[in-house]
From TrEMBL:
Phylogenetic lineage: Eukaryota, Viridiplantae, Streptophyta, Embryophyta, Tracheophyta
Protein's recorded name: Uncharacterized protein LOC111291919
SUPFAM superfamilies noted in UniProt: MFS general substrate transporter
Keywords tagged on the record: Membrane, Transmembrane, Transmembrane helix, Transport
Pfam family, one: MFS_1
Cell location: Membrane
Species name: Durio zibethinus (Durian)
Membrane protein topology class: Multi-pass membrane protein
Entry annotated with the keyword Cytoplasm: no
Length: 488
């Protein structure tokens, strides 16, 4: 007895140190995974902002007007929307780090190919491939964050992802805009920017594949238990694995689409995404006004900084509001943010004189606009999606959200070009490559206003039914989760 007691006493400190070491390794692994996930988000947003930042140079290189450039954005967004459910199917069968790496390599390849394209149809083809890569990555990123944070702080988690992603968008946009006006080794700067971005994206994709750990693998995470059991059952089916994967994907699809909260958020998202898609013309608009590359990059960086800060602060505010008003706090934050898009769009595009002398007014307006109109995804959409479906369906709900929103919002960019050319008299042949064109800038601003102010108002209105449906859908999921845990 004495010997056994002695061994037991001696082993307790060792056991405690072992547990502490395991906990430290787990915390380090989670921190490293979140760091690399945020780096992937940075590169994803940088890649998204790359082409719009060099619209003017691409227009000159391929003799393309606003409607042609709008079609490039349309092609990528439309393909991205159609391919988004692919992310949900892949995540059923593979860990998310592998899925993220596949998507990252896909968009890196297409980005490099755009930089080397010699004809406009080639650019269009590779933009479509780029849409497939983003379709795989974005839903997987969102569900990764949803599984990594609890309900009460999920807004902050999505806000942080948006914050670092927007910083990547700033970096990508600024670098591309500055490089666009130069040449490197006899190659136009905008082409070098695409090749450089593709190289960095490939590196991040490799790091994600090697070092990121899916939160579903964490031992003792209750909300992932259901998913792991389903996945184990699929693996055990051997030869029937493929059919089982498709069956599981189909069941997840039906479960997601029939949720009323999902339907309403997608409806507002289809309309609410239109202004953000139209904003890809901001770079071209400022250059048409007469701002040089550096001034344009600075203005857009202020707007992106405002959006980055606003998305994070909006997520924090919504977390707090959801604690005070659990059923409606996030919805109120989203409606406030959508409504603020109306006065800011009107003031930016119609009230401020379109002249280089209005630089300071443009700068302040863009910063404040970004701070207030960027809350919806982090304050409401992302966190609410995570609460109205079981954990195992989270990637699928984010995938279908991107499918519907991306497909319909992709029409905004070509519509801006068509309105500018057909209704407001934009003529790409009369543009001065150095000094810009105030007349064409005015026409483009009217096209932008048409695709921003009205959709922002409709977006605000379409959030209203959530006051009735969100609480019911959330309670149904919580009740179902409790029943599953009791059965286990």
């Amino acid at each position: 007895m004495g010997l056994r007691s002695s061994v037991s006493v001696r082993s307790k400190p060792l056991f405690r140190r072992h547990l502490q070491a395991m906990k430290a390794r787990k915390v380090f692994g989670v921190s490293l995974s979140l760091l690399l996930i945020n780096l992937a988000a940075i590169m994803e947003r940088a890649d998204e902002n790359l082409l719009p930042s060099v619209y003017k140079e691409v227009s000159e290189a391929f003799n393309a007007g606003p409607s042609d450039l709008g079609y490039l954005t349309f092609i990528r967004n439309f393909v991205q929307g159609l391919a988004s459910p692919l992310a949900g199917v892949l995540v059923v069968n593979y860990d998310r780090p592998k899925v993220l790496a596949i998507g990252t390599f896909c968009w890196a390849l297409s980005t490099a190919a755009v930089g080397g394209s010699q004809q406009f149809p080639q650019v269009a083809l590779w933009r479509a491939v780029n849409g497939v890569g983003l379709a795989i990555v974005i839903p997987a990123l969102q569900s990764f964050i949803a599984d990594s944070y609890m309900d009460g702080v999920r807004g902050a988690g999505f806000g942080l992802l948006s914050l670092v992603g927007t910083l990547g968008g700033i970096g990508g946009g600024v670098v591309a805009t500055i490089m666009a006006g130069q040449e490197f080794w006899g190659m136009p700067g905008w082409r070098c920017a695409f090749i450089m971005m593709a190289t960095l994206s490939s590196l991040i994709g490799l790091l994600v594949f090697l070092f990121v750990v899916d939160p579903r693998k964490a031992v003792g995470v209750n909300h992932a238990a259901g998913y792991n059991l389903d996945r184990d059952e699929l693996i055990e089916k051997g030869n029937a694995r493929v059919s089982s994967v498709w069956f599981e994907s189909w069941m997840a699809t039906k479960a997601v689409i029939k949720v009323p909260t999902f339907q309403i958020i997608v409806l507002q998202g289809i309309v609410g995404s239109l202004p953000w898609t139209a904003m890809v013309f901001f770079t071209m608009w400022f250059e048409l006004i007469g701002f040089d590359h550096n001034s344009t990059a600075a203005l857009l960086s202020l707007f992106a900084t405002g959006c980055a800060m606003g998305s994070f602060v909006g997520g924090l505010i919504a977390d707090r509001m959801s604690q005070i008003y659990p059923p409606s706090g996030r919805i109120m934050c989203a409606q406030f943010s959508a409504f603020m898009g109306i006065p800011f769009s009107w003031f930016l595009l119609k009230v401020i004189p379109q002249s280089v002398s209005s630089y300071f007014t443009f700068a302040v307006t863009l910063l404040l606009m970004g701070l207030t109109i960027s809350w919806n995804a982090t304050a409401a959409n992302g966190p609410m999606f995570a609460e109205v479906v079981p954990a195992k369906h989270r990637t699928m709900i984010y995938a279908f959200d991107r499918a519907f929103e991306g497909s319909f919002s992709s029409f905004a960019a070509p519509l801006v070009g068509i309105l500018s050319e057909k209704m407001f008299g934009y003529d790409s042949r009369s543009i001065d490559p150095i000094n810009g064109s105030p007349r064409e800038a005015f026409a483009l601003s009217r096209g932008l206003l048409s695709m921003m102010a009205i959709p922002f108002g409709l977006c605000c209105l379409f959030y209203t039914p959530l006051y009735k449906t969100f609480r019911r859908d959330r309670d149904n999921v919580r009740l179902g989760t409790l029943k599953e845990e009791e059965m286990i």
